[in-house]
Write a structure and sequence with these properties.
The protein is α/β, with parallel strands linked by helices and about 260 residues long. The protein is built from twelve helices and eight strands. It has an eight-stranded mixed β-sheet with strand order 1-2-4-3-5-6-7-8, with helices on both faces.
Length: about 260
């Protein structure tokens, strides 16, 4: 495990890392979704033989997993992207391949837009691209609570009771305040929007949409801007669990 300070109070963001292979294929950075942990969601992907030779970093964003959870941190998408930049700077990474799921995909998009020197490629699995999504049990459901009601009034416990057991297993390790502020920030989105940032990015970009989640809104517009959009049969929101082979193939299919 590695760590680096990401705020003025000395709070630390942490990541685990596979052994770098000399003269290997570069660095892949895995970024988890809301209430998740990167290694729990992506270690099996990085271990696939098709991805041998890559240095792999599994980052836990602030408030999640093993990272610190300062109470005075904003937990906006921009805040998370800045913390992720601290990781890459501390690890000496430039031109990374970022594999981001859901909220983590949105953070990856923001980082690529703000620090293009750090990111050469984006592989996004159902990343949030637009503000104020339809209400679900995810970010919009969490964000529908007031902060006090979620943190102190039983909202966090209610959400844990209703999410899938696998998600609850990592969500219960997430700080409730950080979870709520992250969800609220994800709902608000960014300016410009994550979709616009993705379309304007000069990185190599691949977006994976699970067929069971329905059609990706605005897919044609994304493809017109150079984003490679792949619909994955038999997969829902968590493509890394439903169709790990498809995610591995998308990561392995690097541009020359």
């Amino acid at each position: 495990m590695n760590e680096a300070e990401f705020d003025e109070q000395g709070s630390r963001i942490r990541w685990t890392e596979s052994a770098a292979v000399p003269d290997g294929g570069g660095t892949t950075v895995y970024v988890h979704g809301l209430g998740a942990m990167s290694a729990a969601y992506h270690a099996h992907i990085a271990a696939d033989p098709a991805l041998a030779g890559r240095r792999s970093l599994f980052v836990d964003l602030p408030g999640h997993g093993t990272s610190d959870r300062p109470a005075d941190f904003g937990y906006t998408l921009e805040d998370h992207a800045d913390a992720l930049a601290v990781v890459l700077d501390a690890a000496g990474v430039r031109g990374a391949e970022l594999v981001g799921h859901s909220m983590g995909g949105a953070v990856a998009v923001v980082l690529a837009y703000r620090r293009p020197d750090l990111v050469a490629r984006l592989v996004l699995t159902e990343a949030n691209l637009d503000p104020y999504p339809p209400e679900t049990i995810g970010s919009s459901g969490i964000g529908s609570w007031t902060e006090d009601a979620f943190v102190l009034g039983g909202g966090f416990a209610q959400v844990l009771e209703h999410v899938r057991p696998m998600w609850a297993a990592t969500m219960r390790l997430t700080d409730p305040l950080a979870l709520h502020r992250t969800a609220a920030g994800l709902m608000r989105g960014t300016e410009p929007t994550m979709r616009r940032m993705l379309m304007e990015s000069t990185t190599d970009r691949t977006y994976l949409q699970g067929a069971l989640s329905g059609e990706l809104p605005g897919a044609d517009e994304l493809m017109d801007s150079g984003v490679r959009v792949l619909t994955i049969p038999g997969a829902g929101h968590c493509i890394m669990f439903d169709r790990p082979d498809a995610l591995v193939s998308a990561i392995a299919a690097r541009s020359a």
